[in-house]
Automatic annotation (TrEMBL), chains A, B:
Protein name: 3-isopropylmalate dehydrogenase
Keyword rRNA-binding annotated: no
Family (UniProt): Belongs to the isocitrate and isopropylmalate dehydrogenases family. LeuB type 2 subfamily.
Binding positions (substrate): R94, R104, R128, D219
Subcellular location: Cytoplasm
Organism: Streptomyces syringium
Pathway: Amino-acid biosynthesis; L-leucine biosynthesis; L-leucine from 3-methyl-2-oxobutanoate: step 3/4
HAMAP family cross-referenced by the UniProt entry: LeuB_type2
Pfam families the UniProt entry points to: Iso_dh
């Protein structure tokens, strides 16, 4: 009996295209022979916007639904006004497909070049809320462009939205050896949203007596990310704090070239989307300098999400082995992709 | 002719009291003999709140106005519900006295123990907006405590508020050798507030043609704080991003034990307030382990703000020399204060 994996691919802009190609290469190499991979490519991003003015037409949003998962490279270019593609494409997808779990693992692979190399093991995941908070796009501007302008941004937080992501984080913590969950917020200043988060966190926690919990303000959390990242196991946090903390996490572990992410709808009502945390890096696009490892690790998250645990493990092991074997000479995007594909099929 | 410096002192809680004592010791030692120091101590913080339920009574707020500056240690204790002292005392002071420039310098002193020791020179200042943004306390909660709760936080930003702090940052950048100013925001997601900041930043920048500018999203900024902090000279940013970035800045330079801050009203309409960035650290209060250096460096900022440039320089040099001379054995709070006082008067 053969199975089919229906994958929507959004290569996007700049290095997005280059790294997605390597992700697909590794995916093809690792998939069991009885799984048939069907991909459909979507031309979305800066190029499309320049050509047609469209970011994500309804028909394409509809057709994206008809897939098991989405693999995205990176979108964005300095030639597009800030916010157009972010709000009109990336965030539109996260919101439309209710990607409420934005999953971002951080692991210090051996032999990685980082200010913290040689430190005790760093291995934590950030469960970032993906559909609420300051990201809802609920803002406005009055007397725009005048000396009397007032601009607002509203952070919206609901018990429903907070509880489902907090519960997901407890489940993940429960399943890990250390069983530790840290809530990060700023409840001494953002008291309304902060207290909602803290109350839900405490209440749901009573259902997970084996999970050890603690709370950190976001500012204090950044200090521990630098001085003591090994203290973290699972972190759950709001959309904006998660955005900031996961870039920082990437910086203190392997660098943004290794940071993968999943925009997950755990209910399965809509396809989940997997993407490297890095951007389209137009400055190095076309030079072959982009490290496709984050895209490949995003493929591992995708495999795990779709139940291909063994294949996900193999991809992650291939990355670990490849990093350990890296010499000093630079390799091209393609060479790294080839090496990883060889390892997973070897 | 003798001059008087009228100083309001809020020692606060935990190590706040211990470090403020050292700050005053150094201040006394460095002040020229023709300056008379008059201090008035205010009993505010967790102890006061437990005793009377008060955070900052109007009469005390009034009487605080009647000073040249305020020196604050740290307030807060786990026994006080989160937000009570922050909103009722600390932020109340910043807002009532219109402390719109929250100034936080970061310098990697030689011989400091940090993950980045041995890196190229790090010497930047963060000019954090202090009276707007997500800190305005404009939020609410509906159906609180039920599964249908909705909680909001509104970030308020005005052209007036953004322009005055941006202008202050340009002035500071203009006065420094590198003349570089970086705006940090998240204008690809928080488009209304972000565009206000960016437009004002660009417009005011035309008056400072010698200042080189750039823009970073807050998530990307955290990466550069770790991988390339030497690229920064002056950073201007919003209240919440500034809170997060300055703790991170402390972590990558000398640690939170060295991070000083000034809550400044540049118009002089109200007294400015100087405080270490660190908290009251109840876990080490009373042990003599607190490093008073951040409080002493806050005194240097205070001196500079009041026009005592030479004395401010002497305090900063004393700290640099003391750090360079530090052996491996720990010293008590008091011993460090004594050493610094000896250096400034020596
Ligand atoms: C591009 C931007 C909208 C996005 C975000 O802020 O979530 C990115 O920074 C990320 O972390 O995926
Ligand atoms: C205690 C808290 C209200 C405060 C802030 O968030 O501004 C502190 O973190 C700081 O940075 O001074």
């Amino acid at each position: 009996m053969s199975r089919t994996m229906r994958l929507a691919v959004i290569p996007g802009d700049g290095i997005g295209q280059e790294v997605v190609a390597q992700g697909l290469k590794v995916l093809n190499a690792v998939l069991p022979s009885d799984v048939k991979l069907e991909t459909r490519e979507y031309d979305l991003g800066a190029r499309r916007w320049h050509a047609t003015g469209e970011t994500l037409p309804d028909a394409e949003l509809e057709s994206l639904k008809d897939h098991d998962a989405i693999l995205l490279g990176a979108v964005g270019d300095p030639s597009v006004p800030s916010g157009v593609l972010e709000r009109g494409l990336l965030l539109k997808l996260r919101f439309a497909f209710d990607h409420y779990v934005n999953l971002r693992p951080s692991k210090l692979f051996p032999h990685t070049d980082t200010p913290l190399a040689g430190r005790p093991e760093i291995d934590f995941i950030v469960v970032r809320e993906g559909t609420e908070g300051p990201y809802v796009g609920n803002g406005g501007s009055l007397r725009t462009g005048t000396p009397h302008e007032v601009a607002t941004e509203v952070s919206l937080n609901t018990a429903l939205g907070v509880e489902r992501v907090v519960r997901d984080a407890y489940e993940r913590a429960q399943a890990r050896p250390r069983k530790k969950l840290t809530l990060v917020h700023k409840n001494n200043v953002l008291v309304y949203a902060g207290h909602l988060w803290k109350n839900v966190f405490d209440r749901v926690g009573r259902e997970y007596p084996e999970v050890t919990t603690d709370y950190l303000h976001v500012d204090a959390a950044t200090i521990f990310f630098v001085t003591q990242p090994e203290r973290f196991d699972v972190i759950v946090t709001d959309n904006l704090f998660g955005d900031i903390l996961t870039d920082l996490a990437a910086a203190v572990t392997g660098g943004i070239g290794l940071a993968a992410s999943g925009n997950i709808n755990p209910t399965g009502a809509f396809p989940s989307m997997f993407e490297p945390v890095h951007g389209s890096a137009p400055d190095i696009a076309g030079t072959g300098k982009a490290d496709p490892t984050a895209a490949v690790l995003s493929v591992a998250l995708l495999l795990r999400h779709l139940g291909h645990e063994a294949e996900a493990d193999r991809v992650e092991e291939a990355v670990a082995d490849d990093l350990a074997a890296r010499g000093t000479g630079p390799r091209t995007t393609d060479e790294i992709g080839d090496a990883l594909a060889a390892r997973v099929s070897g």
